[in-house]
Design a protein that fits this description.
38% helix; Rossmann fold; 2 domains
């Protein structure tokens, strides 16, 4: 029962499913198949994308498509405070607002339910014509309903479809960007590019400030033309490739391409970065950026890298959004849904019967206290081969390595 809900935990699925039944019974006029043209004219549009770095960046093509189709409309984008700096780099957004739901906050307690209701109820005063929720979640669909927007579009696969005037299923076989674009295409038919096409990534553009670029140029003054980024953090332990293998790959690539290694990471990634540094030989030239850059600075650094080697985490999508080649090491998460769509992105993963399970928040019991087999099986040779291919292409394009 409740098979339409994409929730791994049985108790959560039943709780949300029962809530949906109550909502459907209590909400008169709830429609799952609304009129063909949802919004004849929208002047003010509310957008919700409060999850993490990669989630926001994978929604940028949809935001771009919406901005193009609703020319002249004000776009009001709501993000978690952790993404505020990054959201300000998205062109064409009129206003950025931060909201930290408790279930998404990591370093702070987050807003209580009453605080969320109080904050979102104020959206009514803005008189939004349209509200779009890129997150399949009953809670954020509820927040959308509080906005007072007459047209509310989102997904019912996380529950709360009755809060929306147009609720779509979330396609778990399609890319996250494709699902976001499908919402836009529902509002303005024919507007969204095919997410399987590499041109989608071209619209995931960020306006990196020139002062951030200049700061990175100063920091990399002695780096040489080829800079290989290494992001040893996987964001979660379950997606964490072995730091010793990151160091081995960095060593081989630095020597064969006469490259400088740029280590990146958040302050909390310091133990992982230190482990990589400790495993690098003295002849490898290293610049440690971990914990030194905000998201704007990181975007500028990623723009300067020749290639970034990383797990499935935020900097992967940040690098792709600024046009940098990436080698993405995937384990339990599904690259069909989360890998960058750019033609200069390479995915390295192991073909196992159980992978990708995509059970990131609720992993199988055998994978909860150790490195999953799907990451253990990813060898350094495979990562280096993918990087070699991209670096060879970069050598043929000098403009890329001399920025």
């Amino acid at each position: 029962m409740f098979d339409y809900l994409h929730l791994y935990n049985t108790r959560d699925r039943w709780a949300v499913g029962c809530a949906d039944l109550l909502l459907a019974a209590a909400t008169t006029g709830a429609r799952w198949s609304p009129p063909k043209r949802v919004v004849p004219s929208a002047h003010k549009i509310l957008l919700l994308r409060m999850e993490r770095i990669g989630d926001l960046l994978m929604a940028v093509p949809a935001i771009t498509a919406l901005r193009t189709r609703a020319a002249g409309a004000e776009l009001h984008l709501v993000v978690g405070s952790w993404n505020e700096e990054l959201a300000r780099l998205i062109p064409g957004v009129t206003r950025i607002e931060t909201l930290d739901p408790r279930w998404l906050s990591r370093d702070t307690p987050g807003a209580s339910t009453l605080e969320l209701i109080r904050r979102t109820a104020k959206w009514r005063a803005t008189s939004f014509d349209l509200a779009v929720n890129f997150e399949p979640d009953i809670r954020t669909n509820g927040l959308l309903a509080l906005s007072g927007a007459p047209h509310r579009v989102g997904f019912h696969s996380g529950g709360g479809g009755a809060f929306l005037t147009r609720a779509l299923p979330y396609d778990t076989t399609a890319h996250t960007t494709a699902n976001a674009l499908r919402l836009v295409d529902t509002i303005y038919p024919g507007s969204a590019a095919k997410a399987g096409n590499a041109t989608v990534q071209e619209s995931a553009h960020l306006d990196v400030p020139e002062e951030a670029r200049e700061d990175v140029v100063r920091r990399l003054a002695d780096a040489g033309p080829v800079v290989i980024g290494i992001n040893p953090s996987g964001g979660r332990r379950l997606k964490q490739w072995d730091p010793d293998r990151f160091a081995e790959a960095a060593t081989r690539l630095a020597r064969s391409h006469q490259a400088t290694i740029a280590l990146i990471g958040a302050p909390e990634d310091r133990p992982l970065v230190n482990a990589v540094v400790g495993a690098l030989p003295e002849d490898v030239r290293v610049i440690d950026f971990a914990g030194q850059l905000g998201l704007v600075g990181l975007a500028a650094l990623c723009e300067r890298l020749t290639v970034l080697i990383t797990g499935d985490t935020g900097p992967l999508h940040l690098a792709a959004a600024v046009g940098t080649a990436t080698v993405a090491i995937f384990g339990p998460s599904d690259p069909r849904r989360y890998a960058p769509l750019a033609p200069t992105s390479r995915v390295v993963r192991a073909e196992l019967w159980c992978s990708p399970c995509n059970r990131i928040r609720l992993p199988p019991s055998r994978c909860r206290d150790r490195l999953p087999d799907c990451l253990v099986a990813v060898d350094t040779d495979s990562v280096c081969r993918a990087a070699d291919e991209l670096l060879a292409a970069a050598h043929e394009s000098p403009a890329r390595t001399s920025r």
